[in-house]
Design a protein that fits this description.
12-stranded mixed β-sheet; globular; disordered C terminus; single chain; 2 domains; 4-stranded mixed β-sheet; alpha/beta; 11 helices
């Protein structure tokens, strides 16, 4: 299978990230961010043939446990919920519409066997039958740990829900193997390039850093640096045409994704840090609705670790994560991108849809390298244009 979209040139990646040589400067930190590049891994600058094969054939891929070459390098905390149930098990997620099956396949396809996954049910107040089936299927696999809960919501408020999910995430992090060097907390509709664990381990061994970031394929793009923390992500078809689909990891608030960050587990435990308690020690900025932006605890935690706790950091010059849904996800599924308006706390909505099912009122923005993109008529409010 030949993938022509979306590609990424290393020089363009560095230009868009504001990189100069091995270092990047960002006004928020007034500090130097080391950017690591390994010349022997040029293939992970774009979805490589192995990653594509894993993606397309994910329902058929399972790698049984093998003898690891060393201790656990990366503990992956996988946050899952009912909509990630595959269609074959009664769920809405088809193979390329990103079920948990595909996420697990990306782990089985890793070039390094030194990983462990902690699967945690983040559904609150509704049943998730498939989680029990996952326990039955992988319960004897030593690479798996399962976490369930009986947590309830006091209110359906957007921020309250995310706070509870981060409380569940904190419990899952505690169950990472004691010998694990790093952990990545992520959602189970994401997909990791086969070299992820290997590159994180290589960087950890060579650079002795506390936090490793890496680029990610994403629906998010930025026309310009944000003026205010509450400014929404600039999402439109033009950003897909004019920007690379790979988002360089700046390791800053609102411009990195939780799944694109590898934290030192030892340092995390020594610092006695919890995502759900961050508001108590480092108050969140307010979002567009005037509430603490608890849903962005990933980027705000990064800010806290770097600015307040002085964690040592590096950013890998590779795109290792497909943050679903992304243009790449839509392209592989043979679907179009449809972008909704920024009108509620759901923020801009980005969907991979059948081109024939795009609403009639949508404005088609054309096709670029095989990917169709359409927008709702009011995709951006005037104050953000």
């Amino acid at each position: 299978m030949l993938l022509t979209w979306p590609g990424i040139r290393n020089t363009k990646y560095k230009e868009e990230a504001g990189y100069s040589g091995r270092y990047a400067w960002h006004h928020s930190y007034r500090a130097m961010v080391n950017v690591t590049h390994y010349d022997s891994y040029p293939q992970v600058q774009r979805p490589n043939s192995r990653a594509i094969a894993v993606t397309v054939n994910s329902s058929k891929l399972y790698a049984p446990p093998t003898t690891a070459t060393g201790p656990v390098d990366v503990c992956i905390v996988g946050r899952t919920y009912a909509p990630q149930t595959p269609t074959s098990e009664g769920g809405p997620a088809t193979n390329l519409d990103r079920s948990i099956t595909q996420f697990l396949s990306s782990l089985f396809g890793q070039t390094s066997p030194n990983w462990h996954v902690v699967l945690v049910n983040t559904d609150i107040g509704r049943p998730y039958p498939y989680f029990g089936k996952l326990k039955y299927k992988y319960g004897r696999d030593p690479r798996f740990t399962f976490v369930d809960h009986d947590m309830k919501l006091d209110t359906n408020q957007y921020e309250q829900k995310h706070l509870r999910i981060y409380e569940i995430t904190d419990k899952a992090i505690e169950l990472c193997p004691p010998e694990a060097k790093y952990f990545i907390a992520t959602n189970c509709d994401n997909f990791y390039m086969p070299e992820t664990v290997e590159l994180v381990a290589k960087t950890a061994n060579e650079e002795q850093v506390d936090l490793i970031g890496f680029g990610f394929f994403s629906r998010y793009a930025f026309h310009r640096p944000r003026v205010m923390p509450s400014e929404p992500d600039q999402m439109s078809c033009s950003t897909l045409w004019n920007h690379t689909a790979c988002v360089p990891n700046h390791l800053i608030y609102q411009q990195c994704d939780l799944g694109s960050l590898a934290f030192s587990l030892k340092k995390w435990r020594q610092s006695k840090i919890q995502f759900s308690k961050l508001q108590d020690v480092y108050p969140f900025p307010l979002n567009s609705w005037g509430n603490p932006d608890l849903a962005a605890a990933d980027g705000w935690m990064t800010t806290y670790l770097i600015e307040k706790l002085k964690w040592r950091i590096t950013s890998l010059d590779f795109c290792l994560l497909d943050h679903y849904p992304s243009p790449w996800s839509c392209f592989l599924a043979g679907k179009a991108v449809y972008i909704h308006a920024y009108t509620s706390q759901e923020r801009e909505r980005f969907e991979c849809v059948d081109p024939k099912k795009i609403p009639k009122q949508a404005i088609s923005q054309g096709v670029y390298r095989g990917l169709m993109c359409a927008e709702s008529p009011d995709v951006l409010l005037p104050r953000y244009q």
